[in-house]
Design goal:
Residues 42-208 form the Glycosyltransferase RgtA/B/C/D-like domain. This protein folds into two domains: 2-330, no CATH class; 349-452, no CATH class. 59% of the residues lie in helices and 9% in strands. With 457 residues, the protein is of the alpha/beta class. Strands 1, 2, 3, 4, 5 and 6 form a six-stranded mixed β-sheet that branches. It is globular and about 75 Å long. The chain is built from 21 helices and six strands. Helix 2 (24-33) packs across helix 3, helix 5 packs antiparallel against helix 6 (95-105) and helix 9 (144-162) runs antiparallel to helix 10. It has helices spanning 2-19, 24-33, 46-58, 62-66, 68-87, 95-105, 108-111, 120-137, 144-162, 168-180, 183-186, 190-211, 215-221, 232-247, 249-265, 267-283, 298-304, 313-332, 343-348, 351-364, 375-384, and strands at 369-372, 390-392, 406-415, 426-432, 435-442, 446-452.
């Protein structure tokens, strides 16, 4: 029944991936995939590699961009199922494996997140594989020599998670704390030999940064310097609210209770979960923590949830129901919510018709290109229409192996901010069912310099 349910969920996620238009960020990562390199300004390279593989199979379509997301949940769930055997020694297996995989699949983070393609998608996959190899590495029934290949594999997989998103390093720090405070692990050679394997796996991203003035590390590491304790209550409240939503409410409570149980009975899982949590809470004293950042610890929390000793039936059922409702709303929009209340509609609605009208209108006015400074807007226009080329004017495009900056007679497109009065030649809006979602100002055609983004053809 479990594997049958997982198969049904995979089909549903594939349908969702094919039905919902790309978000601007997904289109941005798609541009990355058209220019594969070992690092980018915002994130490491793994999401671009996954998109490249998916579009090679299913073409430059929403399904092609997202294809590996739903498919990765199957081996990821298998890995978590087997990881529970040794990471939860006090619980009977295979029941513990089924329960941990069900809890993770019932979260909105995985349920909806696996049908999209962001750096969190490969991150979650490699963290689940990491937990499996880690469970084999710490098996007390094997010798240090027998555990050595599993430790090296653990280092490699943690490095691949880092190649997906930098937050994976927090799991590594947590594992280091667990090893240093556990004498049996500390005396083995495996954990220490996993370190060079980890750095070898991370080396493509490190080398890219070294050749680009550490641009990505500086950008992401610079967030840690913010400090605004006066707004900490607001930011921590947003952090909690985001996790209650993405975990779904009952599973969030289950996570919290399980983590408390790990503090008493499971030192390893406590280390793996608490180090990232402390970092995110500390960050909330200076700046907003994006809701998806704690995704890195969701597979760990799915295992930890069983240490609460509670039944998981109703948390899983309610989580799946809430995820199903969100998916129905994302595809069919039966509730005619205003865009502010419907984040999926706000990000994905109306792009096809808007892009076509925009390109045709610009071409009629004599423009030979479209230009946008906002990276998401530029990428979305490049993915959606092939009528006119798109010039990206943001400096970040110069870090790509794209053609050199060019100049063309282009119409500049800017999102009209709420309450602002457009001072440009025209305004065009993305619409769904006659309702404006976002409006954009258009300048008169003029010569604009920028980097030409690749199109779908």
């Amino acid at each position: 029944m479990f594997w049958g349910l997982l198969g049904v969920l995979t089909v549903v996620r594939l349908v969702l991936a094919a039905s919902v238009p790309l978000t601007p960020d997904e289109a941005y990562y798609w541009v990355w995939s058209r220019n594969l390199q070992s690092g980018y300004l915002d994130h490491p390279f793994m999401v671009a590699l996954w998109i490249r593989a998916g579009t090679w199979i299913a073409g430059n379509t929403p399904l092609g961009v997202r294809l590996l997301g739903p498919l990765s949940v199957l081996p990821g769930s298998w890995a978590l199922y087997h990881a529970a055997r040794r990471l939860l020694p006090a619980h009977p297996w295979p029941q513990s494996g089924f329960k941990a995989a069900l809890v993770l699949n019932a979260t909105l983070m995985l349920g909806l997140g696996s049908a999209t393609m962001t750096p969190d998608t490969p991150l979650l996959f490699f963290i689940t594989l990491f937990l499996y190899t880690l469970s084999r590495a710490i098996d007390p029934d094997q010798t240090s020599r027998e555990a050595l290949p599993w430790w090296i594999g653990t280092g490699v997989l943690l490095g691949l998670a880092f190649d997906s998103k930098y937050t994976a390093v927090l799991i590594g720090v947590g594992l280091g704390g667990a090893v240093l405070t556990t004498s049996r692990l500390r005396r083995q050679p495996g954990p220490w030999l996993a370190i060079p394997a980890l750095f070898a796996s991370m080396s493509p991203v490190i080398l890219w940064n070294a050749h680009h003035h550490w641009a990505s590390f500086v950008r992401q590491g610079g967030r840690a310097g913010d400090w605004h304790p006066a707004r900490a209550v607001q930011f921590i409240g947003e952090l909690l609210g985001g996790q209650i939503g993405l975990a779904t409410p009952f599973i969030f409570v289950l996570f919290a209770a399980g983590l408390w149980g790990c503090l008493k009975r499971n030192r390893l899982l406590a280390w793996l979960a608490l180090v990232p949590m402390i970092v995110f809470i500390t960050h909330a004293f200076g700046d907003r923590v994006q809701p998806n950042w704690p995704a890195v610890i969701y597979p760990v929390l799915a295992l930890a949830a069983l240490e609460a000793g509670w039944r998981i039936r109703w948390p899983v059922i309610t989580g799946l129901i809430l995820t199903f409702i969100v998916c129905i709303q994302a595809v069919f929009s039966p509730l005619h919510l205003i865009p502010h209340r419907d984040p999926v509609l706000r990000l994905t609605g109306g792009w096809a018709e808007f892009s076509r009208q925009l390109a045709l209108q610009a071409k009629a006015e004599g423009a030979t290109a479209l230009a946008a400074e906002d990276y998401g807007l530029a990428a979305r226009l490049a993915f959606t229409q092939d009528i006119l080329p798109v010039l990206g004017t943001d400096p970040r495009w110069h870090l790509f192996r794209l053609p050199a900056e060019t100049s063309a007679k282009a119409v500049k497109i800017e999102e009209q901010r709420h309450g602002s009065q457009p001072d440009k030649a025209g305004t065009l809006c993305r619409q769904v069912r006659g309702q404006a979602i976002r409006c954009y100002t258009m300048s008169s055609p003029d010569f604009v310099s920028g980097v030409q983004l690749p199109g779908r053809s």
